[in-house]
Design goal:
This protein is α/β, with parallel strands linked by helices. 25% of the residues lie in helices and 26% in strands. It contains 8 helices and 13 strands. Bound molecules: guanosine-5'-diphosphate and zinc ion.
């Protein structure tokens, strides 16, 4: 009887919602009914990302306090040498945007692929600026390696026509990744013309006009398809992946992992290394193996 009484009444007033924008320590949370509340966390709790499902308690009208983050299916990190930050939660697809001009970094592609594999997230590579036909031809040849590995690759021109992308978005919570200049903003603006408007709305809500480039936002494309625009995803720090697990981030390495002579093989120069043998036999590309070694350092 007494334990029943102790149940905090407020438990019953928790509402579930999804974080659709994260800026600093404030979050826009959307309920199933479509209501959007500006929420903060209790105390100094951070570590909430766009895409998170949370339980919150309403305070004054239109505001709330996030009490709990629900279990995530996936979690993407951005990290540099100094800090680790989460960028997006529950993402099911990473769309890597590249273009022939300016030239793109294959290292970033490989980093994205490792990040995606470690969370079992699907990958789509979009070769943008396909209207630059000659340059695009050469870029497509470079990218054929990733197609051969089984990753989907499409070409489009974000400025002209993005219909080739639409079927790939179906049923996914996607996130765009890519270096600056590849055309991510152009793509988002073509896909979601109202994106600019909601950016402005949030800046007004924060009483400041200078938050427009530093926050992530989740947009609904239809009932089952959503996309997160996180302007900062230009590098996928992989500090959170243990070195001994790094090889698992390379899908084509999988059949050889565990086949080396030494259990703790790092696949660098060890005798009896199954991966080194696979490279010699042409079953693993030298280039991908070199990226693995680069990331291992
Ligand atoms: P972001 O830094 O990845 O967000 O890239 P932006 O969307 O700002 O685009 C960078 C530059 O590429 C801009 O000058 C765009 O006009 C240009 N751009 C974007 N998409 C296309 C495209 O499909 N074709 C061409 N030729 N240029 C594009
Ligand atoms: Zn080995």
């Amino acid at each position: 009887m007494s334990s029943e009484k102790k149940l905090p009444d407020k438990t019953f007033s928790y509402t579930t919602g999804q974080v659709i924008a994260a800026f600093g320590r404030q979050y826009s949370v959307e309920t199933a009914a479509g209501e959007i509340l500006l929420c903060v966390t209790r105390g100094k709790k951070t570590g909430i990302a766009c895409g998170d499902q949370v339980e919150f308690q309403s305070t004054t009208s239109g505001q709330g306090v996030i009490e709990r983050i629900k279990a995530r299916s996936t979690l993407l990190y951005r990290s540099d040498a100094f800090k680790e930050k989460i960028i997006a939660a529950n993402v099911t697809q990473i769309i890597i945007v590249v273009a022939a001009v300016p030239s793109f970094s294959e290292e970033l592609i490989n980093r994205c692929l490792v990040a995606a594999e470690s969370q079992r997230i699907q990958v789509l590579i979009v070769l943008n600026k396909a209207d630059l036909t000659e340059e695009t031809l050469a870029a497509a040849a470079t990218l054929s390696l990733y197609q051969e590995l089984g990753y989907s690759l499409i070409q489009l021109s974000a400025k002209k026509d993005i219909t080739a992308l639409l079927p790939y978005l179906d049923g996914h919570l996607s996130v765009l990744a890519g270096q600056s200049g590849m055309g991510k903003s152009t793509l988002i603006n073509t896909l979601i013309p109202e994106a600019k408007r909601s950016t402005a709305a949030i800046s007004v809500a924060l009483d400041s006009g200078c938050h427009t480039t530093t926050y992530s936002h989740l947009y609904h494309l239809d009932a089952n398809s959503h996309i997160i625009d996180s302007p900062g995803i230009q590098a996928f720090g992989l500090n959170h992946i243990k070195r001994e697990n790094l090889a698992w981030g390379f899908d084509e390495f999988h059949p050889y992992i565990g086949q080396c002579k030494f259990n703790n093989c790092r696949h660098t120069s060890e005798p009896g290394c199954a991966l080194i043998l696979a490279v010699k036999e042409g079953k693993i590309s030298k280039q991908r193996f070199a990226f693995y070694h680069k990331l291992l350092c």
